[in-house]
Amino acid sequence: MAATPIPLNTFLSTTGSLTTTPLTLYRTPINVSTIVLSAAIANISTTTQTLGMHILKSGDNSTRFYIVSGSGVAKGESINPLPGKIILQQGDSIQATAGASNGLQVILSLLETAIV
User: Fold this and answer.
1) What's the total number of domains in the chain?
2) Whether this model's pTM surpasses 0.85
3) What does the pLDDT look like over 94-108, one tens digit per residue?
4) DSSP states of 64-94 as a string?
5) How far apart are alpha carbons 85 and 111 in whole angstroms?
6) How far apart are CA 83 and CA 21, in angstroms?
7) What is the CATH number for 104?
């Protein structure tokens, strides 16, 4: 029986509601590299919320490489904190936190590419 082929490129999105505890929004699978295309962060609360978003490199879960730290998101507004595209290698993850629980929602748009 022939093996199921792995798609070379796969577009996907992931969502989450942010709290004061870091939420892993995405972790790059084995044999995949990922391009983070955009991050839409919406403030659904009645006050300005703070946002932190960082990368954890594979094998180093103690060092955070910040994309944004303590940035304010006004009530009823949304932001894309990415300065451009970000590349994640296999095992890397992207996490985010909010200054208060359930005030911010996030949608990440991603492109996974199989390493062949």
Assistant:
1) 1
2) yes
3) 999 999 888 999 999
4) -EEEEEEEEE-TT-EE---SS-EEE-TT-EE
5) 10
6) 24
7) 2.60.120.1330
